[in-house]
Design a protein that fits this description.
Layout: E1 2-5, H1 9-21, H2 31-41, E2 45-52, E3 55-67, E4 71-76, E5 86-87, H3 90-106, E6 111-116, E7 125-127, E8 130-136, H4 141-146, H5 150-161, E9 165-169, H6 174-188, H7 195-204, E10 209-216, E11 219-229, E12 232-240, H8 249-263, E13 268-275, H9 279-285, E14 290-293, E15 295-299, H10 319-329, H11 333-344
Parallel strand pairs: 4-6, 12-13
Antiparallel strand pairs: 1-2, 2-3, 3-4, 3-5, 6-15, 7-15, 8-13, 8-14, 9-10, 10-11, 11-12
Length: about 350
């Protein structure tokens, strides 16, 4: 078994063919995700591939994120909820893990983090509490509607009767999506990603991305950046303006996404990651989905991962962070939109 860092066009073609053929591949295993992250944030990417002779046996996309405040770590993949090891057998999995460990030591990174949806048995430490929520989609939109609980349907009707309307498009809606997203992130007290990050995703996956906007009298008051792969659609980043929360634009937006997905033949919506027990998690669960725990496995070179907490987390309840959050919320929007991307690229995510 040999493990290489893919660099050539021929190796890229091998990678893409392996992902296309593997039944457990996710969108974050696609070749371009490493390069989206590298281009948008400037973090070095390493596309590890295990081969046995001329046969590809496994892959592991990695990106190296460095921060003076939060440390240096290798992850598959930072800023998204997936990646991790994808292989045909255990030998290839372990070969990729050993190479990732070696690379972690070589770069003097503090830890290695692999983002899976199941326990892969690598004997790493694993942070508990994160989950994604999966919503089944049926092609019959009337059946889909009737499958929602009555409180959800009432909220959606309220949004529609308030004059809100949803629309879908591509890159032409990016400015409006980003304006809503940036304001929402400021109000949450969190530095916003750069606009370039979303431009890179649109450029890398032009056939897989849609943007949904909800308008009130023509103004975008809610927005979602949708990513689709293998019959699953994910509103990967979604936001709404506080001024419109009384008319529940998120309810109309997510119903519109579900309805459109059903009409397009999708079978599932992935609501994305949340901390279990938070308001975000409860909001997602009310749509009738199932929670899938996320296993973010962490290996530390100096402790072998034993009894070591996951370094890639920021506890927002910490009084120190609460002060920073409140201060950020009070800043003018142009300031946070300008400064946010310069800070966000260093934060654990």
């Amino acid at each position: 078994m040999n493990v290489i860092v893919c660099k050539t066009d021929a190796e890229r073609a091998q990678w893409e063919a392996f992902v296309a053929a593997h039944p457990e591949a996710t969108k974050f295993h696609q070749w371009n995700w490493c390069h989206v992250i590298e281009n948008a944030f400037g973090w070095p990417a390493f596309s590890l591939m295990a081969t046995d002779g001329a046969t590809v046996k496994g892959i592991l996309p990695l990106a190296w994120k460095k921060s003076r405040l939060f440390g240096s770590f290798l992850a598959s993949l930072p800023s998204v909820s997936g990646g991790g090891v994808l292989a045909t057998d255990r030998e290839a999995e372990l070969a990729l893990i050993e190479e990732a460990k070696r690379l972690t030591r070589e770069l003097k990174a503090e830890y290695l983090e692999l983002r899976h949806r199941e326990d892969r048995g690598f004997n790493f430490s694993s942070a508990e509490g994160r989950a994604t929520v999966l919503i089944p989609i049926v092609a019959d939109t009337e059946k889909l509607w009737n499958g929602l609980n009555s409180r959800v349907r009432t909220s959606i009707r309220k949004s529609a009767k308030s004059g809100l309307a949803a629309e879908f498009g591509g890159g032409e809606l990016l400015d409006e999506f980003y304006a809503v997203f940036a304001e929402n992130m400021r109000d949450l007290g969190t530095p916003v990603y750069s606009r370039r990050f979303f431009e890179e995703i649109l450029s890398a996956f032009p056939n897989d991305i849609e943007i949904c906007l909800v308008r009130n009298s023509g103004k975008a008051v809610a927005s979602a950046f949708l990513n689709s792969y293998r019959g699953v659609v994910e509103p990967q980043w979604a936001a709404s303006l506080r001024e419109a929360l009384a008319v529940k634009p998120n309810m109309l937006m997510h119903w519109s996404i579900l309805k459109r997905a059903a009409e397009q033949g999708f079978t599932e919506m992935d609501f994305g990651r949340s901390w279990v027990g938070t308001g975000s998690y409860d909001y997602k669960m009310q749509w009738g989905g199932r929670a899938v725990p996320l296993h973010w496995d962490t290996w530390h070179p100096n402790s072998n991962g034993a009894n070591h907490s996951n370094g890639n987390s920021v506890n927002r309840t910490n009084p120190k962070f609460q002060l920073l959050i409140r201060a950020w919320q009070k800043l003018p929007l142009p300031v946070t939109t300008f400064m946010g991307p310069r800070i966000a690229r260093y934060l654990p995510s």
